[in-house]
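Re-running DsbA family protein to confirm reproducibility after the cluster update. Everything else is unchanged from the original entry.
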Amino acid sequence: MSTRTQSTRPPAPRTGRGSSRTNATRYRVARWVGIGVLVALVVAVIAVVVRDPAATDRAPRAADGEVVAPSGVGPEGSIAVGDGPVTVTIYFDYLCPACGAFEQANGETLQQLLLAEDVTVDLRPIAFLDHLSEGTEYSTRSANALATVVDADPDHAWSFHRALYAHQPPEGVEGLTDDQLAGIAHDVGVPSEVTALFAEGRHEGWVAQQTTRAFASGVEGTPTILVDGKPFAGDPYEAGSLASVVGQPAP
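Result of re-run:
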């Protein structure tokens, strides 16, 4: 399970001794060296900002703090897929490796349970692993992409969700671009007029809101699996384990 982590304490500064004259000389040298380094850093930062637009920010997106929920979601942010009598709620982050393992183990089982109308899958995308995508905020952008599809083309939301895990990037890299996310969505049938909206980030404020709500409600990490509101008692990484929620044996 992927969980929130705390930052480590920085190392204590090193100290040393010497004569006052030597220390004064070192201070003067250090002062001028420090000024030179500071000037070099300022020049470098300016150069990066001018040469690399991504260094200033991502392309202009929805206004910070604006919360726009996708149409059709429940009052608590539920993205309901299917209409079966048993509800399987999944809290997930698209960058979470454990979530990818859960999808690999039980994605096809859920697909079959949906086709049999045995379950309703309640998708709850959250984004708390943005710091592991080299500044591109992949967790937020991918969740926003799903929300955009839910809003404008809900019939393809489930297939897009599964496709995102089929193309899941590892932690510690930039992740997929908005154009690559659009390509994945297009491959499962989402029209280009919908995928073109990904870069606007219209639902990113909603994603942030859902993330805060999830942790406030007691979610400690991802994936968190609930069956009819109660924690799933089985092994989420065992192939087909979710078949037990409707009384079927795992394959």
